[in-house]
Specification:
- By secondary structure, the protein is mainly beta.
- The chain has a single domain (23-128), classed as Sandwich (Immunoglobulin-like), CATH 2.60.40.
- It contains one helix and nine strands.
- It has one helix spanning 2-20; strands spanning 26-33, 36-39, 43-44, 47-55, 62-70, 73-83, 88-95, 98-103, 123-128.
- A five-stranded mixed sheet has the order 3-9-8-5-6, with no helix packed on it. A four-stranded mixed sheet has the order 2-1-4-7, with no helix packed on it.
- Strand 1 (26-33) and strand 2 (36-39) form a beta hairpin.
- The termini are far apart.
Length: 129
């Protein structure tokens, strides 16, 4: 009986120690409306980040692209595509320190849109420390 209790206790300690080294993803909720991208925070620490896109629109499909600003260029790291009105989707991406944008990059002809969502203001600055 003692041996069983000791083994169970050791297993619990090993599980606890193994969990200490993990890198849990930070969560950022992102509300999408015409014509705004509103994250729950404007920055996070470097590491894994889970973005949860909530389309608050009544009629338009939106998306969230994570764009890293590299000088005059922007590199699209990951997208949450085709978030239907009233729906939510998520993705996790590992981010290094720097400046980013969160943007809806739907263009005319994509997802039934007749307008460029980015040009209409669906972009916001986001920083990673």
């Amino acid at each position: 009986m003692f041996r069983l209790a000791a083994c169970l206790a050791l297993g619990a300690v090993l599980t606890l120690v193994a969990g200490c080294g993990s890198d849990p993803a930070q969560r950022v909720a992102v509300d999408l409306t015409e014509w705004a991208v509103k994250p729950s925070v404007t920055g996070v620490n470097a590491g894994s980040v889970t973005f949860v896109a909530h389309n608050r629109s009544a009629s338009m499909v939106h998306e969230v692209a994570v764009l890293k600003i590299e000088g005059a260029n922007k590199k699209n790291l990951k997208e949450i595509e085709d978030v239907a009105p009233g729906q939510s989707k998520q993705t996790t991406v590992k981010l290094s320190p720097g400046e980013y944008e969160l943007a809806c990059v739907i263009t005319p002809g994509e997802s039934g849109s007749t307008v460029d969502h980015y040009q209409l203001g669906m972009v916001t600055s986001f920083s990673v420390r």
